[in-house]
Amino acid sequence: MQENIDQLLAHPLGSLLGYFAVAVLGLVVFLSFFEMVTKYNCWEEIRKGNLAVAMATGGKIFGICNILRFSIESGISIYDTMKWAVVGFLLLLLAYFLFEFLTPVFSIDDEIAQDNRAVGLTAMLISVSLSYVIGAAIF
Hints:
The protein is 83% helix and 0% strand.
């Protein structure tokens, strides 16, 4: 089975479709993990117009995709891309928990759920910024 997949990935179009599929699947899976750990429902809050949630979620989407980009650029194989993407995502998730832990005067999730845009923007920038640091360490 792996030989057939490797043969498909040897063609540029097959490689594009393979990496695209991995990226979309990774984005869906990793975002669902973030959805499970937040106190609010991201998509329901976005539907209601909560800009803070939209910014925080957008930062997570960008962060996940940026880590996937660096994983793909490592150029080893699609299998290593998936492994590095998981490691990068776990680090991004850890950063989310650290952000909550390092701000003991208020709850990040509560503030974002209440549409505190300053906190939403900060959460977005943390996800985006750390995705570059995590990505740069992927080799």
